[in-house]
Amino acid sequence: MIVAKEILQLYGAENEEVFAEQIKLRNEQTLIGTLDMEYVELTPDRVVMTMPVGPKTWQPAGILHGGASVALAETAATIATAINIDPTKFNPVGMEINANHIRSLTDGAITATATPLHKGRTTMVWDIKLTDEHEKLICISRCTMAVIPKR
Predict the structure, then answer these.
(1) Strands of 108-119's sheet, edge to edge?
(2) pTM of the predicted model as reported, rounded to 2 decimal places
(3) Residue 35 and residue 49 in contact, taking contact as beta carbons nearer than 8 Å
C-alpha cells in the first residue's frame, strides 16, 4: 500500500505497514471487510482501492452487482474525504452518489480510483472510475460527501 506521509502523521502511524494493519482491524467487521475491499494508494488527491469479483459481489446472473460497484465507489470517496479532514473533529458521510455501469464483469478484481472534483470545508465531490484488471472501464461514479462535526 502507498500512503502519503502526511496521512501517516495525521493518523499517528509510524509506517505504512502499521497503518495498513490498523485499517484492516478497524474494517474487519464492516462492509469493507465483508466484500474484501483493499487499499492500494492513499494520498490527499488520489485513493485507489480494489475488490475481488466473485460470488460475494455477483447478482443472480453471475455478474458484478451494481450495488457492489457503488459500495466500492462510495468507500473510496469516504476514505478520500477522511484523509483530507481532521479525524478528531469531523466525520465524512455520503450525501449523494450516482453511477453509470458501462460493462459487466464476472471475475477477477475491480479497481476504484477516486480523484477530487471539489474539496471544500463542508463538502467534497469525488470522481470515481472503476476498471477491471485490463483497465477497461466498468463503471463511473460521482460522490458528494458531507464533512460533519463529531458530537
Answers:
(1) 2-3, 38-43, 46-53, 108-119, 123-131, 137-149, 90-101
(2) 0.92
(3) no
Give residue-wise pLDDT tens across range 75-106: 999 999 999 999 889 999 999 999 999 999 99
Dihedral sign for Cα 32, 34, 35, 41, please. positive
Residues that are catalytic: 74
User: Using an 8 Å Cβ cutoff, are 19 and 6 in contact?
Assistant: no
70-88 b/e (C-beta count within 10 Å ≥ 16 → b): bbbbbbbbbbbbbbbbeee
**Spatial distance between the Cα atoms of 75 and 64, rounded to a whole number of angstroms:** 17
* C-alpha distance from residue 150 to each of 81, 99, 100 (Å): 15, 29, 32
128 within 8 A of 142, measured Cβ to Cβ? yes
Please give the full DSSP string across 103-149, using - where no structure is assigned: S---SEEEEEEEEEEEE-SSEEEEEEEEE-TT--EEEEEEEEEEEEE
The Cα 120–Cα 133 span in angstroms is 32
37: Cα separation from own chain's centroid: 8
Task: Give Cα 74 to chain centroid, integer Å.
Answer: 6
DSSP 4: -
